[in-house]
Structures are given as C-alpha cells and as structure tokens.
Amino acid sequence: MDIKRIDEIIEKHDSEESSLIQILLDIQSEHHWLPKEALNRVAEKLQVPLSRIQHIATFYKAFSLVPKGRHEVHVCMGTACHVRGAQRVLDAVQDATGIKPGETDADLKFSLETVNCLGCCALGPVMEVDGKHHGNIAPSQIASVLNNCD
Amino acid sequence: MSEIHLQIDGKDVVASEGMTLVDAAKSVGITIPTLCHHEKLEPYGGCRICTVEVEVRGWPKLVAGCIYPVEKDLVVRTRSEKVDKVRKVLVEEMLAHAPDSEQLKVLAEEYGADKDRFDKHPSFCIHCGLCVRYCAEIKKKHAVGFVDRGSNREISFFPEIAGKECWDCKECFPLCPTSALQAAYVLAESLMSPPEEAGGCGCSCSGHKK
Amino acid sequence: MTRLSSPEKLECARKEIVAKIDPSKPCISVCAGAGCLASGAAEVIAAFKTELEFHGLTTEVNTRGTGCPGFCERGPIVMIYPGEICYLQVKPADVPEIVSHTIKEKKVVERLLYVNPATGEKVTRESEIPFYKNQQRNILSENIRLDSKSIDDYLAIGGYSALSKVLFQMKPEDVMGEIKKSNLRGRGGGGFPAWRKWEESRNAPDPIKYVIVNADEGDPGAFMDRALIEGNPHSILEGLIIGAYAVGAHEGFIYVRQEYPLAVVNINLAIRQAAERGLVGKDILGSGFDFTVKVHMGAGAFVCGESSALMTALEGRAGEPRPKYIHTAVKGVWDHPSVLNNVETWANVPQIINKGADWFTQYGTEGSKGTKIFSLVGKISNTGLVEVPMGVTLREIIEKIGGGIPGGKKFKAVQTGGPSGGCIPEAQLDLVVDFDQLTKAGSMMGSGGMIVMDEDTCMVDIARYFIDFLKDESCGKCTPCREGIRQMLRVLTNITTGKGKEGDIELLEELAESMGAALCALGKSAPNPVLSTIRYFRDEYEAHIRQQRCPALACKEMIAFHIDPAKCKACGTCFKQCPAEAIEGGKKRIHVIDQEKCTKCGTCFDVCPKQFGAVGKISGEPVPPPVPEEKRAL
User: Fold this and answer.
1) What is the mean pLDDT of chain C?
2) How far is B49 from chain A (nearest CA, A)?
3) Domains of chain A
C-alpha cells in the first residue's frame, strides 16, 4: 500500500471533502479495490468520519472492499438483454466460473458482476470480459470465451 | 414568526411557520405516531409511520408528518382509510424484523396489523436510524453507521471507533425500538479492544470491564 | 489557442474554420459511439487509416469518429461524404474495397448497403433508409455532422452562436421567456416544465446558485443521453451555460455515471476546449458573465438519477434522496438553489434559442412540445435511437421505424419509462406518445427507454425483473420502498416459480398502495411495472397461480424441455451441446431428455436444427413419459 500515492490522489482533488467519492473512484481504478489503509488515510486527510466512507464504499456499486480477480466478467442484465435471455447467459457464466455475482474465485482469476445496462442493447445479450464486449452471446459459447483467459 | 392556519382532522389549527404537521397536530391533542422521529435530532422521515394524507390544490397525497411543514389552508387527515391501510402494512413489514418490539406491538394493536403476515427476517433492524443519528449528531462519535443499500442496508459498529468510545457511553441503546442494536453491538464487540485506561480484560464479557 | 473575447471574434473564428473545409473533399465518418465500438468500430477506423496511408491518400481524405447516428442494430456504420453513402455492418476486411471502389473510383459497394426488407431494394443514402426517413432528427442529426472530440467541428455547424446571442442580445428574462414559451419539459423522467425550475431558482434570494446536468442515465435499456454527451458534448455544455445565465448561476456540475467512460472523456475534453476558447470560465466572450463547471462521476447507483439523491452525491455522500417539500430549485446542493435537468433537455436549449420557441412548438402535442429521443430495444428488428416529434403513435415507432418484431413472432407489449414505468399492450399501440398519454396508460415517458417484448416474454417475469432490479437499487432509507420491494419480490418470485397462491395479486396491490408513502419519486413509482402488468396481463398472473403454467414458456421453474420422438432425427446436435449431459442419445436412436438432470438452460431448444424443430417447451402439464429404451431405434 503506497500511502504517498493515496496522498497524491487526495491532493489532486484539492483535499476537498465534497470530492470524497471522486477520490475513492480514483483509488478504486488504480487498485481495483479499496484497501482499508487507504480508507483510513482518506478519513484522516479529509477529516471525515470513517462511518461515512464505509457507507459510501458499500452504497455505490463501483467500489469493492475486497481484492478483485485478474479478469473482470460483467454480464449485462439490462431490460433489453433480459428479454433476450441474459439470465441464461449469467447461469452459464456461474456454472463455468463457480462464482456468483459480486464474488471472486479463490485463485483470484475471475470476478463476476452483473451490470444494469451497458448501453449496447443492439448486441444483447452481452457479456463483457476485461472491457471487451461479447455480443449476441449464447450460453453454449461462454465456456470457450472464459477458457481463453489465463 | 407568522401564524399559519390549517385544518387537521376537521379541527382548525393555528401553527407557526416552520412547524411540522406532527408538532401542529400535537398542539391540538392529535397524536401522529412516529418511530424514527426524535426531537433532539435532525428530521429524517425514514420509517413513514407518520404518513398522513394532505390535500394540495384539491389533490390528495401522502406525506410524512414528521417533516412536512405546515402550509396555509392545508387540509390534513391523520386517520383516513388510506392512511390506516398504509400504516397497517408498514407495521406488518417491520414486525417481520422485530416481532417482539413493544412499540411495534402497540402500533399493531391500533392498526390491526398481523405480526405473522410476512415471513420473518433474520435482521431485527427496522432502519429508524436513531442510533446512527444520535451517535453522529449528539455525541459526534460516528461509532455506528449505515452500510450498503436497498434490502441489504444495515447498521454496523466500526470496531476502531466503537472500541474507544462505546464502553462508557451506550446512550443509543435505550433509543432502539428493537433488539437490533444490541445484536450489532455484540457482533462488533468481539472485534474491539477495550481502551487501556479502562483496564478491561480484553474480552467482551461485561463482568470484567472497569 | 486564442481566447474569443467578443461575439465578433467568435464569428471570425467560425468563418476561418468553415473556409478551411472543402465540401468536395471526401470524408469517411465512422460511428464511434459505444454501441458501434462494441461491434468493432475502432478496428474499422484503424483499418481505414492504414488503408488510406497505403494508397497515399491520408491528406486527401478526412476520417473522423462521430457520435452515434442511432442505427445501432447495423453497426459499425460508415458514412462517405460527399454523397452521404451509408455502409452498414462494416468490418475491417471491407475497408480495402471501400477505399478502392468508393473513394478512388466513386463507385458504390452494393453489398454493404441497406436492403429494404419489404421491397428488396438497395438504399444508398442514409436519409432514405426507412429507419431514418420516418424520424424527425432535430437533435440527433448533429451527432454525425461532427467529430465528437473537435470543438472546431461544433463551431463549424454554428456552435456557441446561441450562447453568444443570449449573452449579447438577450436579458436573462428574455431567455426565461423563450424557454417558457417553448414549454420545454424535462426529458429525464416526470416531464416537469423546465422554465418552472429555472424561474423558482432565479427568484430565490440566495445569490449562490447552481445548474446541473443529470447524465446519470440509469434506466436499463436507455442510452440516448450517453449518445448525446459522447457524440455532441459541446451542445450540452452550451445549453448549460445558457441556463446558468438565465437563472443567475456561476457554477455548474455535470454528473456522469462512471459506467460511461467515453462520455466522461468527451465532456471533460469539451470543457477544456471551451475554456481555452473563453467560452467557459471568466468573462465569457467578453460579456462579463462568469461560469465554471465541474464533472462529477457517479459511482454506480440508480437512485442517484433522482434529483435530490444526485445532489446529495455531489456533496460527497451516499446518494439518498431527501424530502422535496421544499424544491431543490430553491434548496438543493449545500442548500443553495439548484436547477437540474437531464442531458437531452439541455441539448434542446441552444436550438430553442437559435431557432425560436415557435420553431420548437411546431413539433409535438398540446402539452408536450418538441421531439423526443427513444431507445428502441428488445425484440425489435431495428434496435437503435429514434427521434420523433411528440404525438406519433407507438405503432408508428415500432412498426414503421423499428421494422416490427423479428423472427415472425407476435408483439406482446412495450415497456416505457424504465423501472418507474409500465408495460403497454397491443390494444394500446395507437396511443400517441407524449408525457400525459403515457402516464394515463399506467406507464410514463421516463427518459425514453422503449423495450419491445414479444410472445416469448413472460409479463410476470418482467414485473419480477424490475422489482429485483429495485431491490438492489433502492437506497433503503424508507420503509415502504425497502420493505415493500422486499415483500413484492417474494410474492413475484413465488408466482414465477410455481408457488403462487390465491390472494397474491391482491397482496401485490396492497403493497403497491403502501409504497405511495415512500420518500422519493422512485419509491412511489416502483410498483408501476407490477401494477401495469396486473392491469393488462392479469390472465398471465392467473395462469401462473392457478394452473402452474407460464403462458410465454419463459419461467424456468415452470417449464420442461421435451424432445418430440416423432420429430427427432437423432442428429446428435443437442446431445453434444447439452452442458448438463442430460440427453440420452446415440447413433440412429431417438434422443431423450433426462428431466432429473436437465438444468433448463435451453441449449437443446436453441440448437435443434430448424427443419426438425424436435425440441419443445411444456408448461402446466406433465412431461410425456420417456420413450422406452427398446423403442428408441430409428
């Protein structure tokens, strides 16, 4: 945990209390999670109660209080994808990875999340792996896509 | 402060600007039930048991009596059929969490709520937020707070702070209408280390403290 | 970059930019919106660059990534100017042919054109494709006229002229008057008249005021705001500054959800470019008017689309809505008057100022003026963004523009308004689309998501889907919303898993009534998907409860897959692909599904060759016993 780097992020946002969420987003995007030491540092530097930071860190979906896997798998559960069979895609991903949405496997290989809408409804159902979209995906294709991740 | 005339349950009421409907009703002897309301704390409007019906430009709508400010010529109904139906469901929903809460039992009696209407939920908390707000607003300690959102929302003590502040305070305990706070505290206690000067044994048993 | 310190300098700069544009110079525009990028637009753009370089045409041909033109179904979309030739579903492999044929020889690559499914005719120009022809694209059409990362492109099409007009020729009251006359209503949800918020805020005595862009587009299936902020960010910014001038605000916020990374990049870039040109910041265009703006990223919470929750988030807190008995226009961010409108609303403002309220009000119905962008998705042939004048019928949108339902399926319902809206059945398809008519039908405009559903969609499952969505997305502060949703979800899950019982529908209605006591508009409107499906599709609820039958054959726990022994040709396709190994088969042996092992993933149903159609779904009746072993030989 590089506390100096956390301080830099805080300073980039002028140590402003109202930028708390923006600061946490920056930390999340660098570390892929929010380590406890980072949260304590933010609380100390911005002079905000830890309870507020904990509430924010658990309230917003972008944040994670545990480390994420090497590959982030997102299954779109937007309405358009839902009517085109997103649940079946999700079931297949769960079968292939052995984890449920919100979980990371023990080897820290995959993290699985559902997302509400990726906004590419024409491609539904959509699975996103490490930022790459797999559109019009059938449950039977899932295993081979995930097997390609190392 | 200027006087505001309004009507509550058919009674003419004179209130002063800034008063809430709960306070205005109280001044003429009408009680609007509350759970999350506390006069020392900022208005919250979370439990909605104080829901009343008001008519705004002829349109009825449901509002929270503990935060809605008095308005000139407002017509308020605190016990309409709709209000009673809503309160009954709310009490039943909260009873699914805390069937033994005395305050809820009294409300259940009043509104004919069935404590077994909905399946029991393992968490006792009804999210009135009294503990969280009391700790933050009055004690300024922030030892207990809300975490998560939606149906996963719950209260949680933060061991780092609670370990230092809670042993000698516990002023929030009597505020809790259920046993949720006790439960959350017991859970957190195991993670706390007692303050050095208190000379505790370090375990969570009450006998060795002090 | 020189600051433009007067309206004259702005016009000079504009003339210079326009003078440099050679209308005869070929330009390749590729949609670089998120939808097309997901289908490979970035690779197509890269291929064009390489190919043009190879032919030594880099300086003779422009290439640009534009905003989304809307026809996402057929992306990546490439437009070639002059000529407005429109190529659809372009792949990197098509690029050499486009360059050699269209750019060099001025010939059309026929196979990449749109084919009218009704007539078989090929269509060359974008504007003649029925999907576009039947729209009124006042806002969206600008998207493809500019490179979304170029302020010069925006200036070239008249950008910031409305701002200049407002600052030098109009008083704030005049701006207010024009917006009031246009009767522009909020495009983000409830349709509240924009001028009323503006006026309330302007009249509030507090000298510190804020204007806010709500780009936290959270309705699943809605992406028009993203297309606008990604594709034409300057138009949003210009609208916001005009609003700030009208209400007397000097600070603004743009709240963009972090799930839209490209939108975040483009709006930040636009603000930087505008600041360099003196179009944002101190003394804008030398008018003496100051305005600064900050981008705030939303961290993933649907509830933050609600204005008071969004304002709480701007203050750096968990986005819980606040009671709005005093409007946020009077007491908003840090208790200062705050005007919040959504992206599309702000995008309309420069056009109303430039072309006048009378121009704007020629479109639309009595109570709903102008055009509205819808995202037409789900079981529809032409998925995409559609801009139409208010007052067209749902049927026109779905059939004429959307091209109807694919696969010869039957239309069942269209869901509008996101999780606060409702489902509208076939019988109401001639309903004209405006704020008030949709509300009367038990739905709402919302931000403009339009999800089309066909006979395979179960309406009870759709109700369950939305309530399940809200279970996680409710902030959880007030009892009726948090607990009401929890209980509704239990009942709906029971119904869709075959455990429904008499009285469940009435219980849902009772819970819905109690949710009228919720703290914010999202909680109050949360039961709408349930109530509207009960209203129009009660028979589906009853079939689930009374006959244990899902009429749409969609609810997993209530269906079984079965191979018709008379139709099975023992091709082995389902046998090989079944992930649960639940199919017994063999060479020249009729295949049989082991119901115990079957996980109902539906793979066998999908892969059974169309000409056989041997796999079927059964609901509400027992599965026929398996063919005895000895009779399985074909």
Assistant:
1) 94
2) 25
3) 3-59 (no CATH), 71-147 (3.40.30.10)
